[in-house]
Design brief:
Elements (H helix, E strand, L loop, with lengths): L1 H4 L3 H117 L3 H24 L1
Helix pairs in contact: 2-3
């Protein structure tokens, strides 16, 4: 009780002000803490945005340098592929020509074989002149057609 007797109205007002101030500080502390958290997040986002921009620029620079180095190689590869395609196309033409030539040769061999058979039949059967005449005409026709093909080439 003695401590209450020495308590003056000024002390009471001071105590009330301190208690109200502490209460207000406690209430404001949460708001201040939220403000600091928000500022910290903003700074982190700014740094991240700056880092992302820097990283993006760095990535673009690296991609540009890589493309500058690869561009000549890609052009070289494309020209080689074009050359190879042209050569293969020429080979197709050559193969086609050879196949046609083989057909002509096969026809000539057939005519030659028929002529040999006619000669053998003539020798074996004495005087099969119609068959010999036909074989001679076929050989003559084949030879003339060869001469025509060679002169057209």
């Amino acid at each position: 009780m003695q401590s209450i007797q020495g308590f003056t109205p000024e002390m009471l007002w001071t105590t009330i002000i301190v208690v109200v101030g502490l209460g207000a500080l406690f209430i404001e502390y949460d708001k201040i803490r939220t403000i600091f958290k928000n500022r910290k997040k903003e700074r982190q986002e700014e740094e991240q945005t700056h880092d992302n921009g820097f990283r993006q620029q760095l990535t673009e620079d690296i991609a540009t340098k890589v493309m500058e180095k690869l561009e000549p190689r890609l052009s070289s590869i494309e020209s080689k592929l074009e050359n190879d395609k042209n050569r293969l196309d020429n080979h197709e033409d050559a193969i086609s020509t050879i196949k046609k030539s083989n057909e002509v040769i096969a026809g000539g061999l057939e005519v030659t074989c028929n002529a040999l058979v006619a000669v053998l039949d003539h020798e074996l059967h004495n005087g099969n002149s119609d068959q010999m005449q036909k074989a001679r005409d076929d050989l003559q026709h084949y030879t003339n057609s060869l001469i025509g093909r060679v002169s057209q080439s």
